[in-house]
Design brief:
This protein is mostly beta strands. The protein has two domains: 89 residues, no CATH class; 134 residues, no CATH class. It has no helices and eleven strands.
Length: 225
């Protein structure tokens, strides 16, 4: 009921859409929720490689767990010819899931309690940092009035990101239907890891941060016919 697997991989990417400008870092491989309208050509390249370990205990005697970890690199080149990290090159990822079911509960032995937990830890996304002077203070490029340091695009992250999720379900089985009350607690530690930064003159030091969502409880009631 226990399995372990280790995998190594390498992926070569070519014909990636990149900006038709030999001084630009821009490639669509980094796009998420934001898009730029620029002249594109299919002349970019990239590569993804890494190693991954998975250890899994299949559901047996009402218990399971899954451990997965990965070390990886994700790189690309635009027309500028500089090899950069992709935005999603977090370098490492750790996942752990486990759960337990308690069956035949109650006077009629028709109730089931399930408890589950999930923990993940990963390096943060790489960012385009705000422009700073030699003293580390925010600066604006007088040549074009920009405040992003594109020369350092995706060089570094702000910080690592982690989250703990707990859930529980309570089921009671009737002749014609099964009822379930489900509780999910996202980010129970309320950790708000910093994902990216932006200029905000009202924030301390003029720097605002986009963070993880905080603690979020969710309650569901379901009926299975």
């Amino acid at each position: 009921h226990l399995s372990a697997k280790i995998e190594a991989y390498y992926q070569h990417l070519y014909n990636l859409p990149v900006e038709n400008n030999d001084t630009s870092y821009y490639a669509t491989i980094n796009e998420g929720l934001e898009f730029r309208y620029v002249d594109l050509v299919n002349k970019g390249t990239g590569k993804n490689y890494g190693i991954e370990l998975t250890i899994e205990r299949f559901f047996h005697h009402n218990f399971y767990f899954l451990f997965n970890t990965s070390l990886y690199q994700s790189k690309y080149k635009s027309l500028e010819g500089v090899e950069r990290n992709t935005q999603y090159n977090s370098n490492y990822l750790v996942n752990f899931l486990c759960g337990k079911e308690f069956t035949h509960l109650g006077r009629k032995k028709n109730k089931t309690l399930g408890i589950n937990a999930k923990v993940f830890f990963t390096g943060g996304k790489k960012i385009i940092p705000l422009l700073r002077d030699t003293d580390g203070n925010l600066a604006v490029d007088p040549a074009n009035n920009q405040f992003w340091d594109y020369e350092k695009a995706f060089d570094n992250k702000i910080e690592d990101v982690y989250q703990v999720i707990l859930s529980a379900s309570y089921k009671w089985h009737k002749p014609r239907a099964t009822h379930e009350l489900f509780l999910n607690l996202d980010n129970v530690t309320n950790h708000k890891g910093k994902i990216s930064e932006f200029y905000d003159e009202s924030a301390p030091g003029g720097i605002g941060y986009l963070t993880q969502f905080g603690f979020f409880p969710n309650v569901l009631y379901r009926v299975y016919f």
